[in-house]
Each structure stands twice: as C-alpha cells, then as structure tokens.
Amino acid sequence: ILEDDHMHAHHQGQVTGTSGNPVSVTELKGPQTGIPDKKYVLSAETKTLRLASGEAIEAWTFNGQIPGPALEADEGDLVEVRLVNKNIASGVTLHWHGVDVPNGEDGVAGMTQDAVMPGESYTYRFVVNETGTHWYHSHQQSSIQVQKGLFGSFVIRPSNQQDSETMDATVMAHHWVTPGGREIAALGLADTFQRQKVKPGTPVRLRLVNAGNLTQTFTLNGVSYKVAAVDGYELNEPGTLTDSLLRIGGGGRYDVIFTMPKTPVTLTMISEPDPIGIVYSQDGQGEPDILQKGTVLDITAYGSPADTPFNPSTDFDRSFTVILDQTYFGTYNGEAGQQWVINGKAFPETPTLMVREGDIVKTTFVNRSFADHPMHLHGHHIQVLSRNGEPISGSPLVLDTLNIEPGESFEVAFLANNPGLWMDHCHNLDHAQKGMTMHVAYE
Ligand code: C2O
Ligand code: CU
C-alpha cells in the first residue's frame, strides 16, 4: 500500500521514463536570447568573516558576504545570473529555491548540470513569475555548502506593486557550526533594518527566511502584525496577531507586515537570548519588549478560505504516499549511524514519483519520525489540501517547502506542468544528505 503503480525505484544517474527513453534535462533551458531585465554576477569564494559574536569564521561566500547579495527582480523579468567559482574546491551551483525555473536552470549538481569548478563560470537565464520572498543557494554538497554560507535572498516584486512607502527588510536566519560542533547564530539583517529609524505610521514588511536546517520559532513584540505571505504566496485576508509564535521550517519563508508604532518593535527567535532585530521609531526609543510568549500560529487555520484549483475531492491523475521515518543502522555516504528514509529506503533507493505532463498529482506525506521534515519540491508549487485528515480551514496555502512535524500527515496537490527531473527532499539538509531525498520524473 505504500507504493503506487507509478513509484519506481531507480539508481542515481540512470533515469528512464516508463517508455524506456532517457529523460534529457539539459535541453530544458530558459530563453537563451534577449536582453535580460536584471543581471547579476555571483562569485563563490572563501573569506574570513567576523560574526556579531566576535568569532572569526572561515566562510564560503558569494561576493565575500553572508548572506550573498540580495537579488531582486520584478514579475516577468528575464533574469541572468553568472556564477563564477573563484576557489571553492568541491565546485558550486545555484538553485533558485521557490522559483519554478525550467529544469535545465535548476542548479542541481550531478542532475541538471555539473558543478562549476574553480576557475569556471556558468550562466543561468530564466523568466521569473513566482512573486514574493525566495532565496538561492548552492546545490552541490548542499548540507556543507549552505551551512558554510553559500546562500542569499531572492525577492520578486509583483508587477502591480506601486507602493514605495513600505520599509522592506529581509532577515535570513542561519547558524554557523564551529569545527567543535558549537552553533552560533549568524543572522543576515539588512543594514537598513539595523540602522534606520522608521517614521511612525510607515508600513513595514519583514521577510523572514529560515536558511538553516532546524525549525525556528520567531515572534514580534511591541506591535500587532499579520503574516502576509508564506513561501512568497500571499495569504487571503490574514488576521491580526499580537503574540503568536511563528514556526518556520528549514527553507521556509514568512512575510510579516505591520504599521510602525511610536515605540520599538523587536523580532526574536526563541533559540536566541537577545532579539535578532529591533526596528526603532523616529519618535524616540522606548524600551524594546523581548518577551517570548504566545501560542504557535496554526497556519492551516489562518486567514480566510478562497477558491483554489484543487480540493480533497478533485479527480487526481496520480496519488502517492510518502512515509518519512528514521533508521539507526548502517553506513551511509561513508558515515555510520542515522539514516533518514522515505518509504523505508534511503536515497538513491527511494522511490521516484513518475508523472506525465498535465497530471494533477496528489501526495500524502506522513511523518513517523521524531524530527521535523520540511519537504521541498523543486520546480513546482504544492497546494495544501488537508492536515491530519482535516481539510485546511484558513487561507489557501501554496508552498514549495512543507514542514511536517512528528506524527503529522498532510495531503498536497500539484500540477505537473514543468517537465524534467526534479528533486523532492527534506530541507533539513543533513537529513537530505543522509537519505531523505527522492525524485519526481516525467515519463
Ligand atoms: Cu533549497 Cu533542493 O533545495
Ligand atoms: Cu528531515
């Protein structure tokens, strides 16, 4: 019962459709001609950086900074990014997390391209349609490279957005792990957010990105606020919150909006003793409130329902069940110990979900392990249908990274509209590296 007819075991590097023809992904590229609307160069290089804690770290960076440069584009833009590898010996790539690019631009080393080695460069070109808060990171040995700093934010603004009044800042939560295994918060706060005092009455949008492996709990103090978007997707009629805890799984994003009051607003992350950010008002200081309180926001019951393309009674073309679990045995990728498994298997023995272009695909995720698993599907967005058997009661949720807590189950749906060979993996990148990775392939 765990495996649908269209789940196939396969071995790395040998993907064939049911017809037996190899799937050619390298031809599925973005527009190769045309003048780009936005052009960036990202250079991967080692750099000694100093954390806020004072600690000097040997980081891997894009353009010498963590996070890398903040990329921005407008909806519909043709974006061109040249990746240059200066000296990262294991090679690098760029993956556009949350942006549904053509398969050949997806940046998965060993799958959609080869890693870009020192001295080499590679150019990505694609049109962006997924508005909102996204991010980019290397997808070569991701569990090591993202940890060491090869990531940055990628914000795509809607074409109808006029309002330039809004103070807009991105916060990337990340932890640096020392060679001794100690974790230090390494937070990328936009400089404006650190220094600028904001005029009371100004609309503020904080874009929270969890660029780490573990689920992080955030809250805002000193103001009432709304969660406007999750994974870049704007929620329908979000309600006002005062003390909710926002649990964001690895790879996930929440956009939080509020109107600047006369007193400071603090952003806290429960794992950290001090606020990770303070927005000061021009009208004087006041005391920042750093109380950690409240209950976890149930995102499946937040905001108001609206029409969606799919619902639990849609006639699905394919259905899959994906059981997330752990095992304690064996050696995997040269290391003994824990493996994270999908339907009892570790990658590359995990099943491949075979779809046809145009299929409406339902996937049921069940978490039988003791850890959170933020499952990230490349190249597509998934609509959440139900949690623990209950249809969601709040705003539609359209995600690229679905955090599944222990004991939870979710039904989700996606439209197979982006041919190629895609990753679907846990964005606790240590889990992905230790087995919790599978593929979605087009027949
Ligand atoms: Cu954000 Cu496969 O990754
Ligand atoms: Cu996981």
TrEMBL record:
Note whether Oxidoreductase occurs among the keywords: yes
Give residue ranges for domain Plastocyanin-like.
46-160, 192-264, 337-443
Q: Please provide the record's keywords in A-Z order.
A: Copper, Membrane, Metal-binding, Oxidoreductase, Transmembrane, Transmembrane helix
Task: Specify the superkingdom.
Answer: Bacteria
Its recorded name reads FtsP/CotA-like multicopper oxidase with cupredoxin domain
From what organism does this protein derive?
Answer: Paenibacillus lactis
Provide the organism lineage as a comma list. Bacteria, Bacillati, Bacillota, Bacilli, Bacillales
